[in-house]
Design brief:
The protein is α+β, with helices and mostly antiparallel strands. The chain is built from three helices and six strands; from the N terminus they run βααβββββα.
Length: 85
């Protein structure tokens, strides 16, 4: 479901890309400083777009991914994986 959409809120993107089970968990991680966009601490309303680099700390793991696409809806794991690399 790749539409004309070019950017989406960070909390929505993290949820759509399946880093978090809910948007509120994504928002809590962002508020807790566990998420950076292009090297900067981000707010949950930060718009992310293709080409951005997102760094997410979840527990002991740190994910550094390049945004490939944006989605407003949460899809299957396969679809979610197309959102980043």
């Amino acid at each position: 479901t790749m539409s004309e959409l070019t950017s989406v809120r960070l909390d929505k993107w993290l949820w759509a890309a399946r880093f978090f089970k809910t948007r509120s968990l994504a928002a809590a991680a962002i508020d807790g400083g566990k998420v950076e966009v292009n090297g900067d601490r981000a707010k949950r309303a930060k718009e992310v777009r293709a080409g951005d680099r997102v760094r997410v700390r979840i527990g002991l793991y740190e994910h550094i991914v390049d945004v490939r696409g944006v989605a407003l809806r949460r899809g299957s794991a396969t679809v979610a994986h197309e959102l980043y690399e």
